[in-house]
Every structure is written in C-alpha cells, then in structure tokens.
Amino acid sequence: MPSSATFLHLTDVHLASDGVEFARADHKVDIPEIRQETREEVLDLTLGRVAERLRQEKRTLDGVIFSGDAQDRGRPGGHELLLKLLLKHLSNFGVSPANIVAVPGNHDVPRASPPSSPARYDPFAKVWRTAGCVTPWLDGLDAKPADGGAHRLAADDGTWAIFPLNSCNWSHVSITLPQPLADVWANLHELAAAGDSKVAEKLRSQLDGLARYDMARISGAQLEILRGLIEATRQPRSGRQLRIAVVHHHLRAPSLREELKPFADYSNLAQLRAFLRERDIAMLVHGHKHEHAAQFEHIYDHDGERAHRTLVLSGATFEPGHEADGVRLLTIKGMPNSPSVHIEPIAVARGGVDVRGAPTLNRRLWASDDVPGGPVVIQGSDLDAVYERACEVAGADAENGTLIVHLDLTSEVKGELPLPSSYPLPKPMKADERQRWLKELVQWWQLETSGLEHRMPFVHGSRLRRYGGKIDQIKRIISLLREKASTRALAVLIDPFRDFTQDGTDEEFASFCLVEFKRRELGGSRRAVDAIAFYRAQEFARWWPINIAELRFLQWKICEELSFTPGRITTIAADARTHSRTPTQVAMPIIDRWLDQAPERLHLLANALVNKQLESELQREAVRGWAQTLADLEATAKEYNPDGLPIAIEGLNMLAAYLEVAVVSADPSLSRFARTLRRLASSNHQFEDSARTKADFDRWSINTLDAVSELVALTHERLGTQVIL
C-alpha cells in the first residue's frame, strides 16, 4: 500500500525573549491594559489551534520542519521559545526533538562572528543540538560527517528522508578589503568625522555596512558530506526514496517583488542546482523571503537534454495584513511510486475567531520516467506547429516507434477541413482550391461504396458504414452518444475474416485500424465529440494531415446528428515515419477516383482531347486533373516505395475507351493516344499484381516514364498552349 507522511512547516518566526510586537491592530491612542500582541503570543495561539485540528481529525505528525530565522535581528531567546512552543503543543501528536529538523537563518547568526567559527552557531547549536534535534552539518563547528548529531530525518522503511542544509555560513560576512584601503579602514571614520564623535560613530556603522554582505552560499564541503549521507541512507524496498532538502535561503525569487542588494542569490547556485539534480531531491523547502510559493525547478543535465524536477516550496511567515499562511501542514501521499504533496496553509489565529487559511495546494512530485524508445507525445492547439513538430520527431526520436499526437483545434474556420499551411500539395493552390482538393480526397476515403474496392478493399468509408457488409458503425456511434457518454462508441476498420491470412502472408489492409468517439461535457447543455484513432503505421508528412481531416469530417457527421461540437483529435501511431514522396500515396490517383466521384470529368476530358479545344471552365478543371495525374505518375515512377503506392488503371482504360469511340482514320494521333493509355494501364496493372520488388519497380518505371512522356507530348499536340503540363 502507498504510504504517507505529514509534517508541520514553519519559518521566519522572528521571536525574542523580550518580546517582538505584532502590530496588527490600529492603536491610535494608548489605553491601559490594551496592548499589541507579540509574535510569541500569536504563535502560541496558532500552534494551539494546530494541535486542536490534529486532535479533531485524528492525525499525527511525522516531524516538524523549521527553515530558519527563529530570532529577530539576532536578539536572543528565539530558539528557546520556538522549541518550547513546538513541544508544548505537538508532543502529543508524535513530535519530539528527534523528529524536528531545524536550520539556521541569517537572523540566527551573530553579525560579529566570522564564517566557519563556533561563535557563529553557538545560539543555534545550544538549543537545537542540545535537545537532540536534526540539524545540518556546520562548517567550522563540525569536522567529521557524524559530528553534531543527526543530519537527516528518515522513515523507518526508507520511503522518505529529509536533509537539512546550512546556507548562512557567510551571512553578514565582511569582505577582505584591498590595500591600501585595508590599512586605513579602522581609522577612516575618525579621519572623515574631523573630530565630531557622533558623526564618527555613525560613519563607523555605515562603513561597516558597506563592507558587510548577507551572502547565501553552501560550501562544497557540506555538499560532499551530505552526498555521502544520502548514499548511506536506507532505501525503500521498491520505488524511489522521496528526498526533501531544507534550507533557509531561496533558490530563486518566489514572487515578482524585486530585491536590490549584492549577493541576493546563492553565489554558487549552479553547484547547488546540480546537487539537487544528481542527488534526486524531489522537494526543497525554504524561508527567508516571507512569501508563499510552490514552483517547480527544471534542472537539466550538462547536455541540456534530460530535466530533473524539484518542487521548491517557499514558506511564508505571519505579518500584519498577511496572516492566511502563518504555518502549513505538508502531507505527502502515494510513496514510493506516485508521491504528491498537499500543502495546507494555516492562518494565524485570533482569539475566539476561526480564521480561514489560504487555499490548499496539491502538487504531484513524480514525473514519467524517460524510457528509451518509449512513446513520444506531441500536443497543442496550433495545427501548423503540431504538424511540423510531429514530422520532425517522426523522422528522429519516434522513427518506427510510437507517436501520440493530441490536437485541440481552437481557431479553425467553421465548415473547413483542417490542413497545415506547409502541407506539400501536388501544386500551388489558392485557399478555395486547397479546400476543394482536400474535401474531394476525404470524401473519397469516406465513400460508403466504391467501384475500386476490388483494388482497394479497405476504403475507410465502406468499413465504417458497411462493416461485414451490413453494420453502419457511424450510425451505431451516433445512437450511443445520443444517450450517454459511452466508452463503447468505437469503430473498427480491420476485419480478420477478410484481411488476415493463416500465416500472415499476402495481407493488405489499411493502416487506420480503430477509432473511438468520446462525448465530453463543456458545461451547460453544450457537449463535444472527441476522436481517438489508432494506426498500425502512419506517415506524417503526407498522410497524417489527411487522417486529421478525415477524422474531423467524421466528427462533423456525428455532431450534425447530435447538435454537438467537434472536439479534440488524438492519433496513436504504433510505427511513425515520414517520407518525402509524391502525394499519390494519400489516395487512389485522381483519374481513378473520378470513376467514383465525378465520372463526367472523364467525358469532359475526352471531349476536349477529341475536339482539340477547351470550351468551359469545367473542361479546364478536368484537364488540370489529367495534368496532375501524369505528374503524380511520373513522380511515383522516379522513387521506389517498398510499401507500394496506388497507381492509375481504371481511369486510364475508361479514357482510352472514350477516345477509341471517336477515332477516325484522319486522326492518327488520337488513335496513338488511346493505345498509349492502354499500354500504360496494362503496365500499371502488371506491376500492381507483382511482388513489387525493386527489380519489378525498375522494369515498370522505364515503361511508365516513357508512356507518361508520350502522353504529355500528345496532350500538348492536341490542346497546344491551352494547358500547361
């Protein structure tokens, strides 16, 4: 079973034995026996409320995390007061010195103490270490890794571990002055004051301030000690250990508030970030900035390829006007394999009043592991961007692997099928021509019956609307989605009885295997229909955009019946690839598709060739289609495709038949035209029935290129400058 752990986090409490005023009331006059509360009193009441809440909810704590600044501007007593309050209120809920993790803050180290000196940590160590709390390894005070007591808090089963770090060894450090300034520094205030003792005293303070910096830094020695400690920490039986680092200073600014001062950030930030990455720190908790934030740091390796995620939790403190997140409960669930943290801010209490805290935050602490050869996911709402990215990875990271593309179109024109602007069309086209070309192509693929099924028995429309010769799967889907959001609203395009052979040889069936349509609630009475389609193999440069347009076409048909909105489209390709080949691979050639969609164009084309003139725009359109057919055939014959591409046969024979009817002895070129069409159709048929090896292709290519060249010449001869091929 997944395990969980709960901690109380507090930071920057700024307490002092002589009291620190918490002026949240507006006292314009002084009244006897009415005074401002102190921070100590406010924290006492707030921790009492935390204990009450834990009791009511029957919860316990696995520890307390304190990220520094118990004291206020170095005034004594803060450490003792905080530890006393924690044990007073929380000892009945599992808290003892042994599971309190404390780190020093910049207010906790005396300004006059040098870095790496025992005096620097004397107030902090006397309280926290003497009590037996978990503290960081301290430069100058500790020599060996085991010096200074416990430097980690870990679960008995190893599922989680907390590691404190000290970032305050150089807080309030005075820099080494260069010569000759160093020689005169001690007396510079007196020289500048010209005998005025009050000015001299003020100058001394100001000069010392100029040479002193509140520097955040974690020494390499401390990081190395901690590296060894992490390696020696007990690991869980399975899964990863959830590692939490605690430090006082921020890793980066938690808000847009700008701070202008030298050494505002870690001087060795890159080293610290690399440590977090290499030691697999899932969460870093800090204070210092008095602001709440929960943000992920993505820390890349040296090559900039693989990113490690660390959740950086910046803890707020309590200040007048900012009291909704005084302390917080951190509950980590789902360890070891799917950890997440629930951050429950607890407001600073007021006597007799229940104050609501800030909203609870939930953050997932795990990310999917990168597995070599694993699925690649591309998603977005911009068709052009998604298309170009999918093409790129289909030829690189996801080549011959699984590629999932999720498209949420938000800017399409109603009634238009989507097509990327960079799609390699057969020829330059205007916007209306692009739409006409695409719609004709998609509509052919969605034909319920086709006269070409003997050559291509897996036309998508026939499989969707006449599966097994009788089942209209689209009609069934509409019926299901009209009633409810059913997961059974799917259609299959593979028919094992028709498509499979006993030993798997000589099988030809569509790459488009299955599609599911999902009903999604949009709010109110509005609903969308999403499409998720699976392809055994998918070519992305030419085919994927046509598949997207086809799925959108199907969404339209379903939504028209249901009064729903076409929604998202997801394609799953088990074998992704991209090839720069002729667009004939996206459909049956134009002249063959005319037999299904526009047989009149064959009549118009034959009439133009017989009469040697173009009399209407419809004839010009037919001739343009003929020109594209020849161009596609030529391109197909110039590059071998082991998958095989559909090539023109029936349309060529039908055009030849029309011309043969009109042949007269006085027109030998028309007879030659018909013979060449027959020869090309026969050659194409033989190649389509062959094994389509490279040798078969080479023989066919020679004949095809010769025939295409002859047909181009004959077309020019009969139509002259009226058509450009």
Structure description:
The chain has four domains: about 5-170 and about 215-365, Purple Acid Phosphatase, chain A, domain 2 (4-Layer Sandwich), CATH 3.60.21; about 175-215, no CATH class; about 375-580, Thymidylate synthase/dCMP hydroxymethylase domain (Thymidylate Synthase, Chain A, 2-Layer Sandwich); about 585-720, no CATH class. The chain is built from 19 helices and 24 strands. The protein has a six-stranded mixed beta sheet with strand order 5-4-1-14-15-16, with no helix packed on it. A six-stranded mixed beta sheet has the order 6-7-10-11-13-12. The protein has a six-stranded mixed beta sheet with strand order 17-18-23-21-20-19. Helix 4 runs antiparallel to helix 5.
Q: In the CATH hierarchy, what is the architecture of the largest domain at level 2?
A: 4-Layer Sandwich
Strand order of the largest sheet: 5-4-1-14-15-16
Distance between the termini: 71 Å
- Look at the structure and give the CATH class of the largest domain: Alpha Beta
Largest sheet: 6 strands, mixed
The CATH homologous superfamily name of the largest domain equals Metallo-dependent phosphatases
Nearest-integer average pLDDT: 91
Please tally the β strands and state the result. 24
